[in-house]
Amino acid sequence: MGPDNGVLEAVLPDAEARAVEAAELFLPGPGATFHGRDRFAPVAAHLAAGGSMESLGPVAEDPVRLRLEPPRRWDGGARGRVVHVDRFGNLVTDLPIEWAREGTVEAVRVAGHEVRTAAGHFAQLPADTPGWLPGSLGTVELAVRGQNLARRWGIGGGEAVELAFR
After folding, report:
1. Residue 25 three-state SS
2. Which of 79, 95, 101, 122 could crosslink 140 through cysteines, CB 3.0-4.6 Å?
3. Cα–Cα distance between 17 and 63 in angstroms, integer?
4. Which among 67, 146, 68, 155 has a CA at the least distance from the CA of 108?
């Protein structure tokens, strides 16, 4: 469940979108802030209690869809993007970690930076050295132990990322 702004497109590209029009589920008088309290929470509670998607309202005819290019792989490497910067400043990509494990990664390149250090987890990263590792979402992540890599490099979501295989 999310707003009609395309935010769920990356994880639910083919999901059916519904216009939530069941006003009896909403709290009275929308607040002046995000609808999380007045709309989203009551609707989530309704669904968690066994309410059907159909009871929320009609299928949305024209939901916002972000046309995201999926990651691509070829013999010499792969290309994806940074899809998220987490609260620690780690760069979460859309490149499946299996692609990095199957090939012998020579480097990960992003925004003019080249990362050659691989690790199985954050504690294995040498101090002050950017590295790549498997993230909790099953994708390649770039990080620096104890530092905010996104801030250090001035990188945000959407930046292109390339795996170069040996």
Report:
1. helix
2. 95
3. 7
4. 155
Which among 79, 96, 90, 101 is positioned nearest to 137, based on CA atoms?
Answer: 96
Going by the DSSP 8-state scheme, the letter that residue 137 receives in this structure is: T
Rounded CA separation 66/19 (Å): 18
Task: State pLDDT tens for residues 8-67.
Answer: 776 667 778 888 888 888 887 666 666 777 888 888 899 999 999 899 889 888 777 766
Strand, coil or helix: 142:
strand
3-state secondary structure 46-111: HHHCCCCCHHHCCECCCCCCCCCCCCEEECCEEEEEEEEECCCCCEEEEEEHHHHHHCCEEEEEEC
> In the numeric block, which tokens belong to residue 7?
């935010």
